[in-house]
């Protein structure tokens, strides 16, 4: 049996751009993608802390060190500049893999600069 588990999370980033007339996706500072182990074009979940909206899209790279979080295309209707977001990815794991499973948790400051990166343990996820 496989279980769908949290793979990574970027916690409480601030939306810097909301581009309705763009073909879609979410542009994320490459430093944040790397820290969270998120690949370009990987599916992401976005949870808007400010307004409660939830959506799925895919990640694209924004310039390294820029702090950019740009919600694009139709998703732009769900996030405005200044909104706080949680960006998460999930993956399927076999039962045997769960003993070593440890999601990457990336925490940022108000400028979307990395403050800390942690590996979660099951008790931290409860």
TrEMBL record:
- Enzyme class, UniProt record, top EC level: lyase
**CC cofactor note:** Binds 1 pyruvoyl group covalently per subunit.
| Subunit architecture | Heterooctamer of four alpha and four beta subunits.
Entry's InterPro entries?
Asp_de-COase-like_dom_sf, Asp_decarbox
Q: According to its UniProt record, where is this protein located?
A: Cytoplasm
Q: Which family does it belong to?
A: Belongs to the PanD family.
Organism field: Jeongeupia naejangsanensis
Question: Which Pfam family is an annotated match for this chain, by its short name?
Answer: Asp_decarbox
Q: Which reaction does it catalyse?
A: L-aspartate + H(+) = beta-alanine + CO2
> Which residue positions does Pyruvic acid (Ser) occur at?
25
Any idea which UniProt keywords this protein has?
Answer: Autocatalytic cleavage, Cytoplasm, Decarboxylase, Lyase, Pantothenate biosynthesis, Pyruvate, Schiff base, Zymogen
The PTM entry states: Is synthesized initially as an inactive proenzyme, which is activated by self-cleavage at a specific serine bond to produce a beta-subunit with a hydroxyl group at its C-terminus and an alpha-subunit with a pyruvoyl group at its N-terminus.
Tell me which residues bind substrate.
Answer: 57, 73-75
* Keyword flag rRNA processing: no
Question: What is the protein's known function?
Answer: Catalyzes the pyruvoyl-dependent decarboxylation of aspartate to produce beta-alanine.
UniProt name for this protein:
Aspartate 1-decarboxylase
Q: Which cofactor does it need?
A: pyruvate
Give the EC number.
4.1.1.11
- Give the annotated active site: 25, 58
One annotated GO molecular function = aspartate 1-decarboxylase activity
Report the pathway entry: Cofactor biosynthesis; (R)-pantothenate biosynthesis; beta-alanine from L-aspartate: step 1/1
């Amino acid at each position: 049996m496989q279980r769908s588990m949290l793979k990574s999370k970027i916690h409480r980033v601030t939306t810097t751009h909301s581009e309705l007339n763009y073909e879609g996706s979410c542009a994320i500072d490459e430093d944040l993608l790397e820290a969270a182990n998120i690949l370009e074009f990987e599916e992401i979940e976005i949870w808007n802390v400010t307004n409660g909206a939830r959506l799925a899209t895919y990640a694209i790279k924004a310039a390294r060190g820029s702090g950019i979080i740009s919600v694009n295309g139709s998703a732009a209707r769900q996030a405005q500049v200044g909104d706080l977001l949680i960006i998460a990815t999930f993956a399927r794991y076999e039962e045997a893999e769960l003993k070593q499973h440890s999601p990457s948790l990336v925490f940022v400051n108000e400028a979307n600069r990395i403050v800390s990166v942690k590996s979660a343990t099951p008790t931290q996820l409860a």
